[in-house]
């Protein structure tokens, strides 16, 4: 009986699996191909990055990841900033498996916590593109505009506060604010 329950628990956890397959990262502050090369080199130093295709004209880096990699959006941003530039926009393709999402609510998926803003309530199935709306991932103007879509304090800080504990999220956990 214990083995059966363990098998059911594993099956249920697989059903809520999501994986970031690739990211489109637009950088700001680039003036030449050497700038692009600097960012490319910094991003390649991340062990779970499989490949990077640079669109120098639009300052966009298409980053793919190794299978089953745990992607850290903050680390991608840090590498761009360490190279002397800023992230202007980050969109990620995420594989969802029957995940219910609603506007202004938190969803915990594969170790990441997403707070969806400006969406219709829906079930996500298959690969879906999300855009990160947190400070440092969008312009200051867009960040301020998005404040009007939530009253939760986690939007300003990027971390869960006491308001998130009723959703089973530990205070202090990193939350990524996203839209579809």
For the record, what CATH class applies?
A: Alpha Beta
Radius of gyration: 17 Å
Instruction: Please state the structural category.
Output: alpha+beta
- What distance separates the N and C termini? 42 Å
How are the strands of the biggest sheet laid out side by side? 2-3-1-4-7-8-6-5
How can the largest sheet be summarized?
8 strands, mixed
Q: From the coordinates shown, what is the CATH architecture?
A: 2-Layer Sandwich
Domain count? 1
Q: Could you give the order of the helices and strands?
A: HEHEEHEEEEHHE
Strand content: 35-45%
Pick out the low-confidence regions: 1-17
Number of strands: 8
General shape: globular
> Which fold name fills CATH's third level, the topology?
Alpha-Beta Plaits
- Helix content bin: 25-40%
The average pLDDT is 88
What is the tally of helical segments? 5
Written description of the protein model:
- With 180 residues, the chain is α+β, with helices and mostly antiparallel strands.
- The chain has one domain (17-179): Alpha-Beta Plaits (2-Layer Sandwich), CATH 3.30.70.100.
- 26% of the residues lie in helices and 36% in strands.
- It is built from five helices and eight strands, in the order H-E-H-E-E-H-E-E-E-E-H-H-E.
- Strands 2-3-1-4-7-8-6-5 form an eight-stranded mixed beta sheet.
- Strand 2 (49-55) and strand 3 (60-65) form a beta hairpin.
What are the main properties of this structure?
single chain; 180 residues; alpha+beta; Alpha-Beta Plaits; eight-stranded mixed sheet; 26% helix; disordered N terminus
């Amino acid at each position: 009986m214990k083995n059966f329950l363990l098998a059911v628990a594993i099956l249920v956890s697989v059903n809520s699996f999501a994986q970031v397959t690739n990211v489109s990262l637009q950088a700001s502050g680039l003036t030449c191909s050497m700038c692009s090369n600097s960012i490319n080199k910094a991003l390649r130093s991340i062990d779970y990055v499989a490949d990077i295709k640079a669109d120098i004209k639009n300052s966009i880096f298409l980053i793919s990841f190794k299978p089953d990699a745990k992607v850290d959006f903050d680390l991608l941003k840090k590498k761009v900033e360490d190279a002397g530039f800023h992230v202007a926009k980050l969109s990620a393709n995420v594989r969802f498996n029957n995940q219910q999402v609603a506007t202004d609510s938190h969803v915990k998926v594969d170790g990441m916590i997403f707070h969806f803003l400006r969406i219709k309530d829906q079930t996500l199935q298959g690969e879906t593109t999300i855009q990160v709306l947190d400070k440092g991932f969008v312009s200051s103007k867009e960040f301020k505009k998005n404040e009007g879509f939530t009253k939760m304090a986690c939007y300003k800080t990027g971390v869960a506060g006491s308001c998130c504990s009723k959703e089973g999220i530990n205070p202090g956990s990193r939350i990524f604010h996203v839209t579809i």
